[in-house]
Amino acid sequence: MKKPLLLAILTLLMGCASTSGSFLLPVSHAEESLSPEIKATLVYQILGAELALQDGNFPLALAHYTQAIKHTQHPDVLARTTRIALINKNHQQAYQLAKQWTEADPNSRDASQITAILAFRTDDLEAAHQHFLHFIELTNKPHQGFMVVAKLLLSEEPTKAINLMQSLVNDYPNHAKAWYTLGHLAYKHKQLKIAQDALKKTLSLHPYEPTTTILLAHILNVQQQQDEATRLLQDALTHKKDIRIQEAYARLLVASRDLNGAREQFSELLSQDPDNTELLFSLSLLLLDNNQLDKAEVTLKKLLILDRHQTKAHYFLGRIDEENNRPAVALEHYRAINEGEHYLDARIRATQLLAKLQDLQTARDFLHLTITSDVEQQIRLYQLDAELLIDHDQLQQAMAIYNRALKRFDKHIDLLYGRAMLAERLDQLNILEQDLKQIIALDADNSDAYNSLGFTLANRTERYDEALHYIEQALKIKPDSYYILDSMGWIQYRLGNHQKAIEYLQRAYNIEHDPEVAAHLGELLWVSGKKSESKLLLHKALESSPDNVILQRTIKKLHP
User: Fold this and answer.
1) What SS3 class is residue 199?
2) Other CB atoms closer than 10 Å to residue 302's CB: what's the count?
3) Helices marked H in 443-497
């Protein structure tokens, strides 16, 4: 209770009038005529309640106020008691108190609103309807009342909430905004058919209203009714050029992959409002999606001049500069980004560019200054640090990074897999086997772990039976994976089953013309006496992948 209210009631109860002859707040004659004994009881109960509230003892405060309202129906005391019952999550008691409050103060919006929602929550739906209707009438502006009701019902059980809103709208059948609130509430509750019908009714009462038109078009689009959504927006635009509808139409064209049409709409919108940064950014993304990098660059640079969407503009300008082989300029854009959704990727790209343009240590120093509290992002930074070292043949230092990361995140599958692959290059097969087996223990359906372990055992040891077991497990999980089929072909080759090996490798190569698969299949064809087929396959693969080391090594080994 606010202090003035408490003082007013206590002043009344103790029989003290103000100097002006009136009390601080209006009080009923019934309370003025209370006996001194009852007044003393009320003083005790209200003071006890307020002291309990100060101590955070809500049950005790409620008990005191429950005693107090036996002797007074002052609306403010009833309001206070109702709210304390709500804090105690006693909805039934709060509902009974709220009804008393509404009776004591029938013109109170707060009273009718709280009584309505409590009636709803206690499944007294007819009463909820009447109290919400009364609340809407008290607002004197029905559309505002409906908006408040919709907001209250947004967090309630969807079907019950929508049914109640429908019953309220039926009392205002010709009120467009009442139908709109029903449509919006149904949309928020993912009841799209009800939302669609309500919004169509809205437009029948208020044709081409922009907010309704845009929401209905969005719902139609979500329900894969793109043609109807397009017609709706086009029809609205023929009757009135509204920038909001035209922007929605442009975005619908983007969603429908009519990129040229969308670009025309955005360009027309910008001719009317050339400094509209939201339109500029949308057009930039559209141009990027359409690979029109030069035009996208112009709009993004304008965003920098207008000082809006700075981080996004810098990020996409950096991507354009990378694509156009301007790494130094790209680096400056990335280094300008200190926050936002592209922060981490910009730091990673800047680090990679520094490693190319300057040196490894400068790149790593920059990387180590990257700050993030997100665990997955921290792990990605560890991985990048290790990858930089691997790219510069500093494998032991990279292993130290993985070891440090796994001390913090010992069960992270990507870190375990990364360290396993590095361990293979360092001939530390015990670590590879340990990490891959741990991944399998953590994720029994991890086909990559099964496959990598099986292939390594087949390629680097003579534990062929174990290798076969792991590759078979991987193939059960992903029977059409070309790289697992390649592994199966390789283990069959190791086991001396050349025909089976050729069949698996040929299946793998038919799925994906991978140069390593070609190397394996070419080697097997060679040793099986099919040398002309082998030469044809390997040289054709080399034409497609001239820099592949494994392919080059295989060709040199078979016919130097």
Assistant:
1) helix
2) 19
3) 447-460, 464-477, 482-494
Q: How many CA atoms does the CB half-sphere of 365 hold within 13 Å?
A: 6
Specify the residue for token string 């009631």.
9
Share of the chain above pLDDT 70, in %: 94
Longest alpha-carbon distance in the chain: 118
What is the structure's pLDDT at 34? 66
CA 332 – CA 128 distance, rounded (Å): 61
Dihedral sign of CA atoms 270, 275, 279, 283 in order: positive
The per-residue pLDDT for range 255-276, each reduced to its tens digit, is 878 778 888 888 888 888 888 8
Collect all residues with Cβ–Cβ distance below 8 Å to 461 and sequence separation of at least 6: 429, 467
In percent, the amount of the chain with pLDDT more than 90 equals 63
Does the model's pTM come out above 0.70? Answer: no
72-100 as b/e: b if 16+ CB within 10 A: bbbbbbbbbbbbbbbeeeebebbbbbbbb
Q: Tell me the C-alpha distance between 437 and 448, whole Å.
A: 11
The answer on pLDDT for 3 being more than 70 is no
Cα–Cα distances (Å) from 106 to 75, 138, 206, 322, in that order, read: 10, 10, 33, 68
- Closest of 544, 498, 543 to residue 521, by C-alpha: 498
The alpha carbons of the chain give a radius of gyration, in whole angstroms, of 36
- Burial of 11 per CB tally in 10 Å (0-12, 13-18, 19+): middle
Q: How far apart are CA 545 and CA 515, in angstroms?
A: 7
CA distance 313 to 473: 47
Q: Residue 31 — pLDDT band, cuts 50, 70, 90?
A: low
Residue 154 identity (one-letter amino acid): L
pLDDT at 24: 32
Task: Report how far residue 114's alpha carbon sits from residue 103's, in angstroms, rounded to the nearest whole number.
Answer: 13
The DSSP letter of residue 462 is S
Question: What is the amino acid identity at position 42?
Answer: L
Q: Over 80: is that where the pLDDT of 175 sits?
A: yes
CA distance 436 to 451: 10
Between CA 372 and CA 375 the distance in angstroms is: 8
Backbone angles phi, psi at 519, to 5 degrees: -60, -45
What phi and psi values does residue 467 have, to the nearest 5 degrees? -60, -45
* Side chain identity, residue 485: L
Do residues 26 and 8 touch, judged by C-beta distance below 8 A? no
Residue 9 burial by Cβ neighbours in a 10 Å radius (0-12, 13-18, 19+): buried
